[in-house]
Amino acid sequence: MIPNVCDRIVAEKKELLNRERIPQHVAIIMDGNRRWAAQSGLPVESGHWKGAETLLRIVEGAIEIGVKVLTVYSFSTENWKRPKREVHALLEVFESYLNRLRGEMVEAGVRLETIGEVEKFPERIRLALKKAKDATAHCEKLTLILALNYGGRSEMTRAVKKLLQDYSLNKFTSEQVDEEMFASYLDTSGFADPELLIRTSGENRISNFLLWQISYSEVYITKTLWPDFTKDDFYEAIFDFQQRERREGQ
Fold first, then answer.
1. Within a domain: residue 6?
2. Rounded to the nearest 5°, which phi and psi values hold at 211?
3. Segment-wise mean pLDDT, segments of 10 residues, the chain, 250 residues
4. Residue in 31, 33, 187, 233 annotated catalytic
5. Structure pTM?
6. What CATH number is attached to the domain comprising 38?
7. Annotated catalytic residue within 4, 33, 79, 187
8. Backbone phi, psi, residue 185, to 5°
9. How far apart, in whole angstroms, are the C-alpha atoms of residue 228 and residue 51?
10. Quick check: is 240 catalytic?
């Protein structure tokens, strides 16, 4: 009985959405895995495994309502500073899900992309990413972008270095440098900026995520910890977005 009631509530929330105003690109700071584990009396790695399951639900929900790009903060440049056991657990989560779900991603129409310096991950993680990217390259329902070993400041620093290198090769003049050109050097080149940024766990900060790209994004913050974040919560964030008048600096 309870699952049926929950399903009905989610369906009702989804029906309230204006399908003409679904954000095409949603970014999520998936925060709260460690707190969820602590509150549940479980080891920290349990929070990350539970958080991965949550992502699967949200990907499914995004497809159902027509979101085209979902960018999630999966592993920041600062996460390397966490205890080795926790970092190892995170890498195990990545490898396990990437290898286990390739077929399901293809079946669901999910194309996998990454941003960040993935070359710094162990070879087994890079291989799992490559296999998943290659297998899903033709998928068109949703592009799932994993931000891995990613930081907004690092991304912009790398972009400046690449831009200066091309400038030294006389590929363009200083007068040609504008926002559009600079954006083409970012990891997200080729993707529109997110219209909506969701942050779970109630923290009121950006945490070095997509600093350039979210300049005009609507921000939605919920106190719900990421492992507890449901499709219903996701649709609530979309509904809240639809009630706002987007001015984009005007």
1. no
2. -60, -40
3. 51 83 98 97 96 97 97 97 95 96 96 98 97 98 98 98 97 96 97 98 96 97 98 96 78
4. 31
5. 0.93
6. 3.40.1180.10
7. 79
8. -95, -5
9. 8
10. no
